Amino acid sequence: MSRSVSSFFRRIGLVSLMTVAFTAASVASFQAVAATGKASASAKKSGKSKSKIHKASAQAAVGDEATGAKVRKVVIVKGKRRVILVERGARPMRAAFVPAAPTLGEAMGLRATPDALALRSSVALVMDQGSGDVLFQKNASAVLPIASITKLMTALVVTDAHQPMDELLEITEDDRDYERNTGSRLRYGTMLTREDLLLLALMSSENRAASALGRSYPGGRPAFVAAMNRKAHELGMNDTHYVDSNGLSSSNVSSAMDLSKIVMAAYKVPLIRQFTTTAEHTVNANGRTLHYVNTNRLVRGGEWEIGLQKTGFINEAGRCLVMQANVHGRNVVMVFLDSAGNLTRFADAVRVRNWLERSPHVEAPTQAATPLRNVPVSQPATVLASEQTHGT
């Protein structure tokens, strides 16, 4: 449009006037110049003199006259001209596309690992709970962040401590998530029993509840985390390291091989079994009624026979799931780490269940697996990535 207007001005010998107009104008001056073009075309059609064209151009220049940090902008509203003030050089804000950062498993290339069951999880392990035989494994010794799977160890340390479960604990600002700035429905000052906090931490993965459990341990959080790592060592979880009680840090790491051990250890504690498989629960928090549901949709669906479970998610870990379940009369432990989407960990569990139901006497899938008791954790037989340093 500006090119045609300039051409018009050159034809009528008003180059100098156009220069003045464009020097004074901001981005919005194009509309004013368009008005000039209209006035000029109208004058040409009706045979009016060049002086009127000059007048219209001058008015357009004044219409975008700079006024300090702002410029005047001529706009047309319902056929009438209006003058408004806008910031000089202002541009509409546009949302930039920022691709999501890859999980650690994705960065390691684990998601590209093919497997016989076409799972969407980077890491998977299926174990016969009775014999300890590994029925299926995929990158089972890769050490990755485990997110809220950490809370299973929190529960073991809490139950081992034998502190009063009916003791009232207060949620304080010390329980705030400074790691990721996530929110919580448990407000500061909320008073709940240790039992309720443990239930919410396991069933609904409540981070402030898990934080308060660690803070109220004798010696505080440092002593609690030390107890978590001691317990991991006792269980032979040599690839595991904990730094907090809620799993928000990506420095809480483990492998599928190690997590199968904590699942079997936690399964021996009836309270943990009960709390992890509770479908929903309501608490009275300082006069407020709060309703919570289980983070595992398979528990809520009621079609599975699940004895223990825990979900987890942070960006670095992807979607995670550990479960003990009875499939076709067989007790199995399942571990899925770094699943690619919201529902893929649950879909992978269904794929494993379908496979086991089709082959109830299976000892190993097409991808050769070796009984866990005969395989050193540091050197599994069929693992692509066996060693990673602890940390983010």
UniProtKB/TrEMBL annotation:
Keywords: Cell shape, Cell wall biogenesis/degradation, Hydrolase, Peptidoglycan synthesis, Signal. It holds the Pfam family Peptidase_S11. The active site is at 148 (acyl-ester intermediate), 151 (proton acceptor), 205. Its EC number is 3.4.21.-. Residues 115-339 form the Peptidase S11 D-alanyl-D-alanine carboxypeptidase A N-terminal domain. NCBIfam families: PRK11669.1. This is D-alanyl-D-alanine endopeptidase. It comes from Ralstonia solanacearum.
